[in-house]
Design brief:
By secondary structure, the protein is of the alpha/beta class. It has one domain: Rossmann fold, CATH 3.40.50. The protein is built from 10 helices and 10 strands. The strands form 2 sheets. The chain has a 6-stranded mixed β-sheet with strand order 6-7-8-3-9-10, with helices on both faces. Helix 3 runs parallel beside helix 6. The longest helix has 16 residues. The protein starts with 11 loop residues before the first strand and ends with a helix. The relative contact order is 0.19.
Length: 246
């Protein structure tokens, strides 16, 4: 696959340059290079253990690369603490949702804005999230732990949006959801991008991710195996058979 030359005219927002990340003696990501350009949905796909979540955790400042560097809007951020990464405009909806189960929906959303003190804008963003996810409006005073898996996933994405991300990172947003909710989540991801937020998406439902993404990277055992325009990867039967489960 070749790089989509149409991308080259768009400014790079996130630049991951030749990073390797290890857990003790085990190297989980090996010399990975990728970038996300402003306004895109970029997806990172691969099987379990391919290094996808490790890559996201490193971008978010939860892990430090042992080599290589990461820059965001031209500033090197590799090794920067996670809360400072959030303040710079990178917010993540983590795998497994990680909502605060004993807090209400409203309190969870407020936690997403914990670094902010622009109260009027926080209220406006809360309204925007509740418009994106009307189910959360219906559950606004309900304890988050009592909601369905799909509702909790909506809450995890909404909480990340409350940080006013320039780059929204989504880790397995469709995991464990019924097909009708999967469709809703992907429609909402497209809507979030249309409202001006750039998105980096990790998703095991590779074909669904490729349908909404502009550009894709395929990881295998910590190595970058393929990259290219998402529609090209999705339409190449040899690639589908080899990497995307047929």
């Amino acid at each position: 696959m070749t790089t989509d030359t149409g991308r080259l005219s768009t400014p790079v927002m996130l630049d991951v340059n030749n990073i390797s990340v290890a857990y003790g003696a085990i190297t989980a990501v090996k010399g990975l290079t990728l970038n996300v350009r402003e306004g895109e949905i970029v997806t990172l796909i691969g099987s379990n253990g391919a290094g996808k979540s490790t890559t996201l955790r490193t971008i978010s400042g939860l892990l430090k690369p042992k080599s290589g560097e990461i820059s965001f809007k031209g500033e090197i951020i590799s090794g920067t603490p996670g809360h400072e990464i959030v303040a710079k405009g990178i917010c993540q909806s983590p795998e497994g949702r990680r909502i605060f189960s004993r807090m209400t929906v409203e309190e969870n959303l407020e936690m997403g804005a914990f670094l902010r003190n622009d109260h009027a804008e926080i209220k406006a963003d809360m309204d925007r999230v509740l418009e994106l996810f009307p189910r959360l409006q219906e559950r606004i005073h309900q304890k988050a732990g009592t909601m369905s898996g799909g509702e909790q996933q909506m809450l995890a994405v909404g909480r990340a949006l409350m940080g006013q991300p320039k780059l929204l990172i989504l880790d397995e947003p469709s995991m464990g959801l019924a097909p009708v909710l999967v469709d809703l989540i992907f429609e909402t991801i497209e809507k979030i991008r249309s409202q001006g937020t750039t998105i980096l998406l990790v998703e095991q439902n590779a074909l669904a991710a490729l349908r909404i993404a502009d550009y894709a990277y395929v990881l295998e055992s910590g190595n970058l195996k393929l990259e290219g325009p998402a529609k090209e990867l999705a339409n190449d039967q040899a690639i589908v058979n080899a990497y995307l489960g047929g």
